[in-house]
């Protein structure tokens, strides 16, 4: 991602942090607010204007650069809704994203999928712009996400899973050695319900730890695994309810 774009994105965050609006910037630069919005949208700020905006929030350009560098090295644990939507709207990008999160190299992608090198480079550059990776010389990839990175609850990726993947996920009898399905039903107090949910979170952390431990293995020595862990207040009698949810034998 070009540093000028990073710099302006950091400047926008600092303006928001200091409760400064586009109107304030417009007054500072003696421009219309529409012109200021266009300059930011096009990442087109001269050094003179950049310096003037920095003065507006009491900073030097060097302070802005240091802030930008700090942001670039800070791992992210979650994307914004807009960033997730960019990925969910492009299934090729989603596939590559999932592979990269599982520590695939560019060579792995080209070997196992029918992508051309320019296509992979374009998608990796997109992930670089989203700060999921740093796309380095010689097509090397450095993963930037935090160890606890996850998709947003009810965000675009999870919505896509429910809409397009969920039916395929259960299209198996779970009889392979690599598959397991457990369906539990019982009655729990609120306290024990919360306790069990914490254990589910711990299990998810253990899965991520094992995945990171195996990251150094070749692709042929590890296989994709998707774990679905869920819990809700649902009773088997709902199977016998009418479309309105009313049970024929329950008063």
Describe what this molecule looks like in 3D.
The protein is mostly helical. The chain has three domains: 71 residues, lambda repressor-like DNA-binding domains (434 Repressor (Amino-terminal Domain), Orthogonal Bundle); 63 residues, Arc Repressor Mutant, subunit A (Orthogonal Bundle), CATH 1.10.10; 66 residues. It is 53% helix and 3% strand. The chain has eleven helices and two strands, in the order αααααααααββαα. It is globular, with a radius of gyration of 24 Å. The chain starts with a helix and ends in a 38-residue tail after the last helix.
As a whole number of angstroms, the C-alpha radius of gyration is 24 Å
Number of separate structural domains: 3
CATH homologous superfamily of the largest domain?
Answer: lambda repressor-like DNA-binding domains
**CATH architecture type of the largest domain:** Orthogonal Bundle
Strand order of the largest sheet: 1-2
CATH class division of the largest domain: Mainly Alpha
Overall shape: globular
| Tally of contiguous helical segments | 11
């Amino acid at each position: 991602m070009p540093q000028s774009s990073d710099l302006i994105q950091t400047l926008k965050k600092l303006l928001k942090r200091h409760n400064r609006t586009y109107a304030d910037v417009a007054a500072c630069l003696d421009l219309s607010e529409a012109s200021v919005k266009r300059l930011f949208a096009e990442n087109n700020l001269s050094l003179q204007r950049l310096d003037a905006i920095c003065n507006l929030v009491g900073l030097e350009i060097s302070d802005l650069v240091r802030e930008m560098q700090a942001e670039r090295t800070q791992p992210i644990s979650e994307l914004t809704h807009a960033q997730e939507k960019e990925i969910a709207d492009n299934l090729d990008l989603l596939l590559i994203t999932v592979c990269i999160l599982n520590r695939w190299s560019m060579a792995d992608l080209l070997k196992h999928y029918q992508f051309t090198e320019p296509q992979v480079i374009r998608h990796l550059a997109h992930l670089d712009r989203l700060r999921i990776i740093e796309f380095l010389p010689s097509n090397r990839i450095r993963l930037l996400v935090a160890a606890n990175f996850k998709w947003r609850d009810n965000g675009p990726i999870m919505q896509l899973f429910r809409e397009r993947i969920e039916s395929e996920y259960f299209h198996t009898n779970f009889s392979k050695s690599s598959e397991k399905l457990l369906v539990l039903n019982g009655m729990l107090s609120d306290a024990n319900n919360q306790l069990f949910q914490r254990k589910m979170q711990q299990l998810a952390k253990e899965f991520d730890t094992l995945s990171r431990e195996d990251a150094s293995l070749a692709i042929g020595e590890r296989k994709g695994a998707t774990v679905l862990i869920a819990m809700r207040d649902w009773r088997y009698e709902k199977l016998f309810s009418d479309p309105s949810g009313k049970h024929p034998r329950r008063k």
